[in-house]
Amino acid sequence: MPYSGVSVGVFLPFFMSFWLYLGLQKRRLIRTKQKFFELNGGVFLQQQIRNYSDTSKGGGGFKIFSKEELEKATNNFAAGRVLGHGGHGIVYKGVLEDKTVVAVKKSKTTEEVPTKEFAREMFILSQINHKNVVKLLGCCLEVEVPMLVYEFVSNGTLYHYIHGSRGLDSDTGFDTCLRIAVEAAEALAYMHSSASPPILHGDVKTANILLDDKLTAKVSDFGASKLAPTDEAKMATLVQGTCGYLDPEYLMTCRLTDKSDVYSFGVVLLELLTRKKALYFDGPEEDRSLVLCFMMAVKVGQHQDLLDSQVRDEMTIEALEEI
């Protein structure tokens, strides 16, 4: 029996120290999450949501998620849940407690945006309500780089639909391609002209146009989105976007405008018409850019040779010239 007393005397301080350590770690984790929440504008965003909920519009459905909720939804961000990689981060498929399927974007980095400005941008983006724009459902602010939660769109991207193994086959018809293009254009027009304040996308490309099970287009990925500046003197300190789609004027001036989005959308149209990628890294340098290839072909009157055979078969010359 003396031995049991000795054992308790030896191990009791150990267990007490262990539980004390766990308690300190838990409190430290709570403080860290609270610090990031405040730094990312959580308090301001909560107030915005509360004010919006008090109006006749209701709450808008926007939610601030905890870190634990998104870890559980994505199975701790398992590799098997990855939907896609982008310049701004990784997107995971998640399933919330109520069985709602979502897309969780875990960003790599973030610009140093003032706290209230970031929260304001998140809230304004959450109010976008257009059938051809992927809905922002919420965010998590308890981490260094905020995570964004979007509606889940089931049928992949326009990029994979054009260039992937399944491709745009003869059963699809070019009229479907045109409808997808029109829907994407309507989404951009809405963001530029009807949203208040206007919103610039900044990274329009086929990989950022998602398709649902009815092949309805939904413009996604507001990683580079900007609220249109009210001060004309404001300029970006870092050009964002994707090579092959970037507006040359934006590259030279670092000033993102609605014309930058329109230029990028023009490249999307070229991809649809030619079934060629915006940028190739193989072959001669002059053939790497789809835009440059097309411009050179136009100069010598050979641009129709670049068009996909299905496009040439289904579209009249007049319709192609109009596009």
TrEMBL record:
TM spans, by residue? Answer: 6-24
Q: What is this protein called?
A: Protein kinase domain-containing protein
Molecular function (GO) terms for this protein are:
ATP binding; protein serine/threonine kinase activity
What keywords are annotated for this sequence in UniProt? ATP-binding, Kinase, Membrane, Nucleotide-binding, Serine/threonine-protein kinase, Signal, Transferase, Transmembrane, Transmembrane helix
- The organism of origin for this protein: Aegilops tauschii subsp. strangulata
For this chain, the family text in UniProt reads:
Belongs to the protein kinase superfamily.
**Subcellular localization, as worded in the UniProt entry:** Membrane
The record ties this protein, via Gene3D superfamilies, to: Phosphorylase Kinase, domain 1, Transferase(Phosphotransferase) domain 1
Keyword check for NAD, yes or no: no
